[in-house]
Amino acid sequence: MLNTGRTHDQLTSRLKHLVADLSRTDLLDPEAIAADAPLMGSDLGLDSLDALELAMSIEEEFGVTFSCHEESHRAFTNIATLSACIFDRLHSSPHAHPHAAKLTSGFALDGRVPAVAANPA
Q1: 3 inside domain
Q2: Contacts (Cβ under 8 Å, ≥6 apart) of 80
Q3: How does the average pLDDT of the chain come out, rounded?
Q4: Number of Cβ within a 10 Å radius of residue 107
Q5: Is position 19 within any domain?
Q6: How far apart are CA 20 and CA 92, in angstroms?
């Protein structure tokens, strides 16, 4: 489901739900996740494979791909940075299209978090 028409707050809320689904913490209320809480190595219990799953979910849902290590490291710092990065990509890309996503893979399985790039439709 590709949707570029969400507000920043809606995007942040959706990301909290995606993270809660991946969390090893039982019964985690998505809205209780602090936007500035670290995604990796925190109480959320996310690891590098969870980051990969999150990246794939974001790619599917928003058509935003992850490929550059340095940029992804910054984007995956917390919900706020991830949301801002995705929101900026969706709303600044002349190629963002609300009905099509070109899915690509460029994920490293060595524990590095992938980076974000707008995906032309």
Answers
A1: no
A2: 12, 35, 36
A3: 75
A4: 19
A5: yes
A6: 28
Share of residues in the chain with pLDDT > 90 (%):
33
Q: Is residue 76 part of a domain?
A: yes
Give 55's Cβ-side CA count (13 Å radius): 30
Number of domains in the chain: 1
Distances (CA, A) of 92 to 7, 15, 97: 14, 19, 11
Phi-psi region of 82 (alpha: psi -120 to 50; beta: other; left: phi over 0): alpha
State the pTM of this model: 0.70
| Residue 50, domain CATH | 1.10.1200.10
Domain holding 55, by residue range, is 8-118
Please write the tens of the pLDDT for every residue from 94-103: 554 443 333 3
What phi and psi values does residue 24 have, to the nearest 5 degrees? -85, 0
Q: Which residues touch 41 (CB under 8 Å, ≥6 apart)?
A: none
Residue 39 lies in a domain: yes
Please say whether the beta carbons of 65 and 103 come within 8 A. yes
Q: Could you tell me where the DSSP H helices lie in 1-121?
A: 8-22, 48-62, 69-75, 79-92
